[in-house]
Every structure is written in C-alpha cells, then in structure tokens.
Amino acid sequence: MNNGRLIAMTDIHGELAKLDSLLNKLNITPADELVFMGDYIDRGPDSKGVVNRIISMSDICKCTYLKGSHEYAYLKAREGDEYYKYLFWNYGGVQTVESYGSFENIYNVHGEFFESLLPYYETDKYFFIHAGLRPGIPLEKQDEVDFYYIRGEFIYHKHNLPKKIIFGHTEFDKPLVQEDKICIDTGCGKYKNAVLTAIICGSKEFIHS
C-alpha cells in the first residue's frame, strides 16, 4: 500500500532558493507524488535552475508538470505571436533570458520540457490546474487560454466538477481556501518577501519556503 503524500506547488518564478528551501522542508520520499502547476520561469533570478531542479525531482518520486501562463506565453512568443512577445518581455522574460544566456538557448536547453507540459492533471479527488476553468462550460469545450489566465470569473464562482480544484496564478497573502477550490499562489517571485507554498493534499496542510 502506498502511504505517500500527494503534494502540489505552483508559481515558482525563478526563485530557486525558495524552491530548495521548500523541498528541504517537505523531505520528499519515493512514495510521494509531486504536482508542479506551472510558472517556473520569469521574474526571479534562476529560471534555468528551477526547471533543472523540478525535472531532477522525477528521479526521487512521481512528478507531474503543468503549463502555466508564463510557459504558454514563452512558447507563443517563440512562435512569433506579437501579443505574447509583449507579455514575455514585459512580465519577467528578461530575467529568464539572462538565466539561460539567450532567448534561443531557452529552447535549446528545455524546449522539450516546455512542449511536454500538461494543461491540467486530475486524481480521484483533486483537479490540478494553473489558473482555473470557466464555470458552466464542460471541460472538453473549455478555451485552453482560460486554463492559464482566468482569474475572478473562476475564483469567485462555483465550478461544476466533482473534485476539489487546486490552482495558482492569482496570488494571495496566504492560501485561499474555499469549499470547492484552493489557491496556493502566495506571490513567490512577484514580491521580495513572499513565500513559496505547497499543499499536502490529504491533510490540507500548507508548507512554506
């Protein structure tokens, strides 16, 4: 019988030191399962180091990697989309380029990883997603952009899934706990003193960097 923990975290934003602090406190074992919910890059000083670290965690336990708004914007910018180029370069992409050495090198080093990121992940009790879902629309008919960018329309309205949704993208001073959803983005990478937060799903315990 697997007595491991199901643990999720999100919005690391290049903050390798905070990530390492959090992983050290979590003391991950092979029985655990980690769900990383996107926004690994931009803003913080070591996006490349963060991606290397979360990839390396798959040597220890089962890991699932979701796409966040910043990975989505990066991939669209690389394809030449002018709107997402603007988002990338004006919302922390400069620090990512500095971390990798050049814009082109981001894809050379981790392009395969970014292309492999999932839009969401679900277990028997939980549904993990970066930003959320548009209420009232079946999952198969959702606009993918909402998975990475939706805010208030999702946060402040009930969803119709039979599972508790764990999400990030919109930061709060402390985890936002609602009956049908929990937001664990506590502003890491956006505010200097903000912590990186993980949730241990079974016990609903929050661990901070």
TrEMBL record:
<protein>
    <submittedName>
        <fullName>Serine/threonine protein phosphatase</fullName>
    </submittedName>
</protein>
<dbReference type="GO" id="GO:0005737">
    <property type="term" value="C:cytoplasm"/>
</dbReference>
<dbReference type="GO" id="GO:0016791">
    <property type="term" value="F:phosphatase activity"/>
</dbReference>
<dbReference type="InterPro" id="IPR004843">
    <property type="entry name" value="Calcineurin-like_PHP"/>
</dbReference>
<dbReference type="GO" id="GO:0008803">
    <property type="term" value="F:bis(5'-nucleosyl)-tetraphosphatase (symmetrical) activity"/>
</dbReference>
<dbReference type="GO" id="GO:0110154">
    <property type="term" value="P:RNA decapping"/>
</dbReference>
<dbReference type="Pfam" id="PF00149">
    <property type="entry name" value="Metallophos"/>
</dbReference>
<feature type="domain" description="Calcineurin-like phosphoesterase">
    <location>
        <begin position="5"/>
        <end position="173"/>
    </location>
</feature>
<dbReference type="InterPro" id="IPR050126">
    <property type="entry name" value="Ap4A_hydrolase"/>
</dbReference>
<dbReference type="InterPro" id="IPR029052">
    <property type="entry name" value="Metallo-depent_PP-like"/>
</dbReference>
